[in-house]
Amino acid sequence: MAKKPTTVYVCTNCGEQTVKWFGRCPSCSQWNTMQEEDYSPPVAPEKENKKINAVERYQSKSTAKTSVLKLSDINLNDEIRFKTGLNEFDRVLGGGLVKGSVVLLSGEPGIGKSTLLLQICDKFGEDFKIMYVSGEESQNQIKLRAQRLSVDAKNLYVYTETNIAKIHDALDEIKPDLLIIDSIQTMYDNNSASSPGSVVQVRESALSFMQKAKTEEISIVLVGHVNKEGGIAGPKVLEHMVDAVLYFEGERQQSYRIIRAIKNRYGSTNEIGVFTMKQDGLSEVENPSEMLLSGRLLDVPGNCAVSVIEGTRPLIAEIQALVTNTAFPSPRRMANGIDYNRLCMLIAVLEKRLRLKLSLQDAYVNVVGGLKIEEPSCDLAVVLSIISSYKDIPVHNDIVAMGEVGLSGELRQISNIDTRVSEAIRLGFKKIVLPHKNIINIKKSEAEIIYVKSIFDALDLIV
User: Fold this and answer.
1) pLDDT averaged over 10-residue windows placed end to end, the chain, 463 residues
2) CA geometry: angle at 458 spanning 456 and 459, to 5°?
3) Which residues have CB under 8 Å from 370's CB, separation 6+?
4) Exposure of 379 by Cβ count < 10 A (0-12 exposed, 13-18 middle, 19+ buried)?
């Protein structure tokens, strides 16, 4: 008689289960995604009925009658979104939490996820009922942290439990408007033989909470751990199930924190929220441009200001570059805040078109403040900062440069030029460098507009 398997291998990307280990998933063809999990054999029919009855308490109560409707017949009430009280958080979500939505908030340990959620509870709990479920801290520990943050929400209920069946019982009793699960990797379902944090447990726990949110219009925020590769721990399908995925970023040694959306069904994924960490919690930064330029040194070679767009918000960031003689057989290239491959491309353009001997130089480029710039409008500022460091001549302090650089050295047109220029003028910059096709009409007393066609014209700004 063949021996029954006690473990199976589950794909973290698609959830495919196999008896044998594969380097490549036979279903989704992803490499190195198969993880070993405990296997629970099928239950006899009479036992299966008893097993289902054990979880009927939260499955049957979450069932709501739905009907097929025309899109034109669906009415949205006026309070479809909840304001959390933190404008930066609401901005990233697209205006606030949507009723019945599931938001996944992830970030490195110690970055401030629990602090952010408790501060949301303080504002949100004034008008709505909140249930905070923690699988990592005791109630006393949460109370101590709430006192440190001066959080005193009257409608905040704290529950320390990891069994989702008991959590659903508490939800039916309290009936909150907002449910916070900290964290989803600590939750488990008795119906699965896997340990908490496994692929199966994370998937099934998230699915049960998602069904609860959709049927009873409870907004849910799930906290997710981050693995060594920087992704969210657990199955990749977890990110597909939820309505929004938020990343809380920043260096623990620095005070600034940035929250951004990589998925949002109810808003833009280009918005960012900026916070600063203080002893009494997170504080919103309403003017990130001043924050990013607060420590800027003047008359120093190798830095240039650029105006970028994050969602609907214009930001003035500082690009720093350091070019020095290499001590290695091949020169080093390091990019922090911009795409590494794009930096290599810009260096190749400078070496080919301007005859700069950068093949003998190490090049380091950094965006100050931990900001990550993905749009190509920062190309001109990167080029100017590299040339400035190479020639050891500073770029003028009042210059803001923006434009996409092509492989021939030409400057390409960029979008949202009016918003970018207005932000630069508001912060006191007097010279604004633009591609020659971006024609803009402003008063001469506000700023001087310098139009350039290629990096050859931009070279005149330094030499």
Assistant:
1) 65 78 84 76 47 43 62 68 89 90 90 91 89 92 91 90 93 93 89 78 90 91 80 75 89 77 87 86 87 85 92 89 93 94 96 92 91 91 95 92 94 91 90 90 78 88 71
2) 65
3) 249, 250, 251, 254, 256, 258, 337
4) buried
Cβ atoms of 132 and 159 closer than 8 Å: yes
Please tell me what DSSP assigns to residue 324: E
Residues 103 and 264: their CA atoms lie apart, in Å, by 9
The number of residues making up the chain comes to 463
* Rounded CA separation 16/252 (Å): 37
Query: Alpha helices of 79-198 — where are they, by DSSP H?
Result: 87-93, 113-124, 139-148, 164-174
Stretch (H or E) spanning 48: helix 45-54
Cis (ω within 30 of 0) for the bond into 255? no
- The closest of 217, 184, 176 to 62, measured between CA atoms, is 217
Beta strand 219-224 with 178-182 is parallel
The set of residues, in sequence order, having a beta carbon less than 8 Å from that of 462 and lying 6+ positions away, is 384, 387, 388, 391, 393, 395
Angle subtended by helix axes 379-391 and 340-353, to nearest 10: 60
Angle of helix 199-216 relative to helix 164-174, nearest 10 degrees?
Answer: 20
pTM, full prediction: 0.73
Burial (Cβ within 10 Å: 0-12, 13-18, ≥19) of residue 359 = exposed
d(CA 367, CA 303): 10
Q: What tokens does 402 get?
A: 């923006």
